[in-house]
Amino acid sequence: MLYLAVTGNLNQLALKRKKNYLLLLGILYVLQMFSYYSAIRYLGASSAVLLLYTDPIYLTILAPLLLGEKNTGKTIFALFLGLIGVFYVTRPEGGFEQLEFGSDYLKGVLFGLAGGLFSSGVIISVRYLRDEYNGLTQLFWQSVISLFFFSPFAVSVPRNVLAENLPVLVLFGVLITGVGAVFYIRGVTGVNAVTASILTLLEPVSCIFFDYTILGNPIHSGMLTGCIFILAAAIVISLDDSVSLRKLFIWDRITFNKGAFVRRKPVLRAHNK
């Protein structure tokens, strides 16, 4: 809102048609983030971010049903690669026979898979609303809706705990939702769609690196194998000749799974080609 006020574009926040779908977008985003952070809590950051990147699997299935997008041989192949990746990421080191019902590991896997599903729902909603609301408008109202639903969780936190961690939380919000996202989108607007999509894959790879080096969480061989298959699935979709599903995955994922950005006109022209 501050950015829009400074640039004199507050009129972009006006609600038009499809308000119910704008509300749906916000709810799906809330569910995505709740599932994602719950997966991090139970499973660890590396596995959680990889499971979040399973949204191409769901998009391959849901896009033809909800948006009329057509699958090709490459998208089916990407689905196959993604499923193999999920198998390796979710498989415990000792095998599935050691997976106990109700364990934290199983909860993390389920939350991670749910996060990928809700992420695909966010992308499809963005696609549906793009002709009525620009990216910044969708992002603003999505944030407002998220604030409404997440506020009770913030109030429930003990005051001393909130005060102790508030500087980190503010820094987290400013760097990721603000500065980092602006730098990111200004960078991807200068490259083509395929390059941009591959750049997005730095997120799960860097997450695994920092999870191991900074947080000290162990990384098993199955996670690395699953990482290769899931990222390969994303690359296959980005190289697919059927531009409809490719654009659905690339630009709409860049728009909302990275937090915040201001979409510039060159991106919109590339999106509609």
TrEMBL record:
One GO cellular component term of this record is: membrane
Pfam families referenced in this protein's UniProt entry, alphabetically = EamA (PF00892)
Query: InterPro entries in the record, alphabetically?
Result: EamA_dom, EmrE-like
Q: Please verify whether the record's keywords include Glycosyltransferase.
A: no
Keyword Transmembrane helix belongs to the record? yes
Its transmembrane ranges are 21-39, 45-67, 74-90, 110-129, 136-154, 166-185, 192-215, 221-239
Domain EamA, by residue range, is 16-90, 107-238
Q: What is this protein called?
A: Integral membrane protein
Q: Which organism is it from?
A: Methanosarcina thermophila CHTI-55
Lineage, broadest ranks = Archaea, Methanobacteriati, Methanobacteriota, Stenosarchaea group, Methanomicrobia
